[in-house]
Amino acid sequence: xxxxxxxxxxxxxxxxxxxxxxxxxxxxxxxxxxxxxxxxxxxxxxxxxxxxxxxxxxxxxxxxxxxxxxxxxxxxxxxxxxxxxxxxxxxxxxxxxxxxxxxxxxxxxxxxxxxxxxxxxxxxxxxxxxxxxxxxxxxxxxxxxxxxxxxxxxxxxxxxxxxxxxxxxxxxxxxxxxxxxxxxxxxxxxxxxxxxxxxxxxxxxxxxxxxxxxxxxxxxxxxxxxxxxxxxxxxxxxxxxxxxxxxxxxxxxxxxxxxxxxxxxxxxxxxxxxxxxxxxxxxxxxxxxxxxxxxxxxxxxxxxxxxxxxxxxxxxxxxxxxxxxxxxxxxxxxxxxxxxxxxxxxxxxxxxxxxxxxxxxxxxxxxxxxxxxxxxxxxxxxxxxxxxxxxxxxxxxxxxxxxxxxxxxxxxxxxxxxxxxxxxxxxxxxx
Length: 431
Ligand code: AMP
Fold this sequence. Notes:
elongated, Rossmann fold, 7-stranded parallel β-sheet, alpha/beta
């Protein structure tokens, strides 16, 4: 099956060809005809499946085919959880729509709003936005959403995880009743099902294989190592195995900063990307990494979510994620589009429970390795885990709720706090 057999118009076909895609991915095969028909869609698909083109191409076609209002109005609204994902979706809209006369713009928080207000005022057909800034601009009456024909919620599960449900509900109230709704989500929690139930009218349901069943191209390995030796082991692996482009995941923003600094000191150029960095810093780090000018990008899960970095050769879990599904998202960054990738996890004694949970989810045992010179101490005792994002959905890995909550800030080094607490008893709690 080719893109032209899916019924896309010539302008879109030539834009797809310019991207170098010859064959539609499974989600594109299913989503494109469904969206072209005009009905609602509920799609279970993760980043890396080609989902963005799956909704962008038919959305552009419907907008180009449909009657245009006399004055340019926002006719399609795409909501994404993160700024990076918004920027990427915006790029895809611009790339695929380059031969059409539709106008699009991306808006998100963390940057000045005036250029966004100016772009809206100049007239737009397609708006790609994160919920917070969109709502701000709507409340300030800079934007009229009453003519939206197509609404896309991209990575809806992550939007709910990030607490955007109230913003989304407010945005929905600003939209016309009659519209086409497309909902993409990697997982189907009860919350997502509730949202889908309210939002979607008789949707076509699409499910493509999860990456944990399709990631055969990813060579996954566990290095057992002591907590304190992780950084040296990582520097050693990067240097000894000549890894040139490495995405490293840490659990906390603080940990990401620290690791990037330490690797840079060891002559491994590294930058951290996370929610506390300014948008300019995040964009600059990502661009340098994509262009091959930055060897290591250290990221937290939320910052890395949805990053479109093609054919990434190496992903490292410096720490295992608290939620097993995030492991699948993380390694989904590598081994894409037919190229082989390596996913390496550095696992210390604290993380054995998390590792078991991951192996249960992906239904296989991961290969365990020990690097000579970095043999773990067989008598090492587990310590409580530093937690950056907090436990979701009541899963707090056995920690007391107050400990899990404290970790939520992402700014405090709770490992130290926990160690002090254990040594010093209750008196050290305020430390
Ligand atoms: P997404 O899941 O939308 O983030 O897309 C994942 C990656 O696959 C992106 O880098 C796209 O550029 C790429 N891609 C999308 N569609 C195709 C296709 N039909 N063939 C090859 N690569 C694609």
